[in-house]
Amino acid sequence: MTRDSRLVALSLLFWGLGEGLYFYFQPLYMAQLGAGPIQIGSIIGLAAAAMAAAHIPAGYLADRLGRKRLLIAGWALGAAGATLMFLAGTLTWFAAGFVVYQLTSFIFAPLYSYLTESRGKQTVERTFTAVSAVYNVGAVLAPILGGWIAQRLGLRAIYGFSAAGFWISTALIALIGAQPVQEAESRLRYSALLRNNHYLGFMALVFFAFFAMYVGLPLAPNFLHEVRGLSLQQIGLLGSITSTGLILGNWLLGKRPPRRGFMIAQALVGLHMFFLWRGSGMLWYGLAFLGRSGFNLAHTLSNAQVGRVVAPAEMGVAFGLSETGIAVAQVLAPVLAGVLFERETILPLQVSLGLIALSIALTWRFAPRRDLHTEIAFPLPTGESRTVRKTFRKRI
Question: Fewer Cβ neighbours under 10 Å: the N or C end of the chain?
Answer without folding.
Answer: C
